[in-house]
């Protein structure tokens, strides 16, 4: 399943404006087929459109108000007039059973909103039976209903499906838009450039890439820390490996681990124990953990100074002893 946010991005402003005008003139077709590259947040735009079609009082720019009864149940993912079809977990296709549930849904009377909205993500994943079944709803649209499809591969949809929808091609962001967005997500310019190059200019894909990379580094650092505490690696060996890494980040990780460990030890045996916290129990005691936490904080205040990297990492690891 796709995690959806009802948001649009800077590179969506033109299309959002077009949709808004079509809605104002009551010309919005009942079936819309959006297509565009994955990793650019396009599915979020479609989701934002769904929410705003359901909203009882959209704002002047045609965005959902976020306050009304409809918006509240939408945010709780419990809107009775909204149906989302997506690939089920571990499945490669959208099945005819899923599409049949959609027919039934469209026949119900509306309960909260002026419209009923169906959204299908990965529309290209409908198998032939599913696509044929969807044709029926596209040919005989239910009153006040909208069917919003999104696909990254429009040519893989049956031509009969494509021809019954208004097709809207979503543009990928340009380099400046992608960079600005990534920088607003707290990525440094060099990292942002590098990741955009790797992902072919797709900013949301770049962010996923970045968090994966960071998580890997975090796990590696934790393993090194444990190896030092267990006497399997020397302070200098580990410090040499991490001397060029962002020192604020190294300190933040350690502060988080110690803080979580303290919180858990205060609460007694918690049920949220992670492997990391269990591992730390062999090396931390409640009174020394507080001391360690404070010293890590002090070091963090110093970490902005142009100190020797290796020395700083050595110092931070030495605090654990
Ligand atoms: Zn609303």
UniProtKB/TrEMBL annotation:
Gene Ontology annotations for the cellular component aspect, listed alphabetically: DNA polymerase III complex
Pfam family, one: DNA_pol3_delta2
Molecular functions per Gene Ontology: 3'-5' exonuclease activity; DNA-directed DNA polymerase activity
Classification via InterPro entries: DNA_pol_HolB, DNA_Rep/Repair_Clamp_Loader, P-loop_NTPase
A GO biological process held by the record: DNA-templated DNA replication
Highest taxon listed in the record's lineage: Bacteria
Protein name as annotated: DNA-directed DNA polymerase
The protein's enzyme class: transferase
Protein species of origin: Thiothrix eikelboomii
Transmembrane intervals: none
The entry's keywords: DNA-directed DNA polymerase, Nucleotidyltransferase, Transferase
Enzyme Commission code(s) on record: 2.7.7.7
Catalytic activity from the UniProt record: DNA(n) + a 2'-deoxyribonucleoside 5'-triphosphate = DNA(n+1) + diphosphate
